[in-house]
TrEMBL record:
Protein task: Catalyzes the oxidation of 5,10-methylenetetrahydrofolate to 5,10-methenyltetrahydrofolate and then the hydrolysis of 5,10-methenyltetrahydrofolate to 10-formyltetrahydrofolate.
E.C. code: 1.5.1.5, 3.5.4.9
Keyword line: Amino-acid biosynthesis, Histidine biosynthesis, Hydrolase, Methionine biosynthesis, Multifunctional enzyme, NADP, One-carbon metabolism, Oxidoreductase, Purine biosynthesis
Superkingdom to which the source organism belongs: Bacteria
Span of domain Tetrahydrofolate dehydrogenase/cyclohydrolase NAD(P)-binding: 139-280
Subunit structure: Homodimer.
Signal peptide (UniProt feature, chain positions): none
Annotated Gene3D superfamilies: Leucine Dehydrogenase, chain A, domain 1, NAD(P)-binding Rossmann-like Domain
InterPro entries in alphabetical order: Aminoacid_DH-like_N_sf, NAD(P)-bd_dom_sf, THF_DH/CycHdrlase, THF_DH/CycHdrlase_cat_dom, THF_DH/CycHdrlase_NAD-bd_dom
Protein name per its UniProtKB record: Bifunctional protein FolD
Residue positions binding NADP(+): 165-167
HAMAP family with a match to the protein in the record: THF_DHG_CYH
Amino acid sequence: MTARFFDLEAMGLRLLEESRSRAVTLQRQGIVPCLALVEVGDDPQSATYVTRKIEDCKKVGIDVRKVVLPQSVTQSALLAQVQMLDADNAVSGILVQLPLPSHLDEGAVIQAISPHKDVDGLHPVNLLSLTTSEPSVIPCTVRGIDALLSETGFIRDGARVAILGRGKLVGLPASLLLSGQSRNTTITILHRKSKNLRDILKNSDIIIAAAGSAHLVTPDMVGAGAVVIDVGMRWPEGTLRGDVHPDVAEVAGWMTPPDRSFGVMTRMMLLKTVLDLVEKKGAA
């Protein structure tokens, strides 16, 4: 068996055009979507992500208000900046680029953003909504995963889904969404120290790898025909490596391209989320 690869780039282009069309419709109504993007420090990797997000917004017609704060910014100063943006009616959504420097409390910063402006979907109110039949805001990477599974028909009631990784950006929200009332799959959350890791993965219909451990998932861990989505990334010696070994393609049915970033899907879902928030505000 040779796996079929999800065409992330083609899907990304289609999603970009859909968002452009939605933004044009809003602009004709006199509404200009605006994303406030807060970046702390000068981490090169974060700066690259921020640059790509800004470029995507410009392509579709979403204004960006970029705020750059020094690495040494205090918790109170960062919170004051977030609260000011939150109170600005011209700002449709707020994204604070994570991770933040270790001296800052990420949880407090996330909770300072109103749920209806939280484009990352990490506010406790938005996370809780993932378990309901109508989630409010789905974290962007998780929304990208859900889109792949939904559009290809792989989400089925009772499907066995193994999520490798328990982080707050992917593992936790993915488990809440996919086991919630809107998706009805059966979830197992795993990590590198889980017992029987190989056997659980082998008996799963869908594997979502988000551990950030290069080539952790090998062919002997994957059942024939399984769907494998790799969003974990490491850069050993400057080369991108996903959580899933390329040879998994020999046994999987469908999988994301090996050792390739999932970033295009995450960024396209960011655009959709900003536009969703604008449209919900207009309908309120």
